[in-house]
C-alpha cells in the first residue's frame, strides 16, 4: 500500500462492548483490556495489525468500564509521531448527537463522526478490538480501491454448520455481496465451495462520504444501528458496490487463524493453544511484531531446585517478573509479576498479572484473575461442587477465580 494513500485512512476500533459472555473476567474491565498470552491484552493484536499495516491515525471508541483500557493505551501505545499527524486516540462516549450511550456498532461510529471528519479521511477502516488474528489492512484497502467498492467487508470461510455464529455474506463469483444474514440457522454456501459460507469478521472499509451518508440516514430510522444488521443490508439492497474480501492471513501457518475469544471456553482454548509445540498462532514472528505495554519487570526466576521441591515449568509460557519458588508449573501461562510460593502444583491454567499463589496450593484447569491472592493450601479445579459453590465455572469446566472470592482450602492447611 502506498504510504501517501495510508495518510488518507482513519481506523476506528470498536472497544466499548460489555463482554457479558467473558464474565467474570470483564467484571472490572472492558473485554479488549483482558489479558491474553502472558503480557498482552486482547486489543493489542488489532492495534499491532494497524501499526504493522502502516496505519497511523487510530481512534479507539470505548464505553464499558474503560479505565484500565485507557491506561493501557496511554502507557503502551504512545509510539506514533504526533508532529506528523499520527495518533492513537481514545474516544469515550460524548453524547455529541443525542442523550444516548452507544446504541450499536454503527451508532458508536456515528456519535464520533465529528472527530473522524476532522482528519478528512478518504477511507475509514472499522475494526473490532476483541479478536485475535494477524492481517495487513493495507492489502484489503488496495483491493477495495481497485474494485471501485464503496464498502468492503472482511470475510473468512467457515463451515456451513457454524453459520449461526456469524453474520453471513452471500456473494457472486466476483465476491460482490448479494445478500447478508445475521447468524442464520442455515446459510448460502460460497460459489466456489459448497461446504463453506462466508462469515463477516467485523472488518469494514468504507469510502468516508458513503459512511457519513449511511450513518446519518440510519440514525433517523428505527433500526438496531448495527453495521451487520442494518448498514450492510441497506447498501446491498440499493445496488451499491459492496464486496467481500477473503481473509489474507499474515500468521504464516497452513491454516488461517482468526479467533473470537468472546466466551470463557473460547478464551481458554485459544490461550492453551499458545503453549503447543507448534501453536496455531505465532507469537514469535519478528516480521510481524506484537506490541504491548510491559512494565520494567526483572527476568523470570525459578528457585529451590531440590528433590521433592522443585522450581520448574514445563510446556508453559512464563512472563517477566515471575518467581516460581519450589513449585511445579505444567502446561500453563503465567503473566508478568506472578509469584508462586513453595510446594504448589499448577497445571493447565492461566495466572494473570501480579497474582500470588501461596504454599501448598493445587490448581488445575483454571483462570486466576489479576491481583488474586490464592491462600495457602487452596484446591482449585479438583472438586466440581466446591468450585461451583465459590467461583464461576464455564460450560467446559474451567474455573475462574476473581479478587475477593474465598477459595476452598485443604483442611490440613486451613488452621495454618
Describe this structure in words.
- With 416 residues, the protein is α/β, with parallel strands linked by helices.
- The chain is 22% helix and 27% strand.
- The chain contains eleven helices and 29 strands.
- Strands 1, 4, 5, 6, 8, 9, 10, 11 and 12 form a nine-stranded mixed sheet that branches. Strands 16-19-22-25-29-28 form a six-stranded mixed sheet.
- The longest helix has 12 residues.
- It is elongated and about 70 Å long.
Give keywords:
416 residues, alpha/beta, 6-stranded mixed β-sheet
Short recap of the structure:
The chain has about 425 residues and is of the alpha/beta class. The chain contains eleven helices and 29 strands.
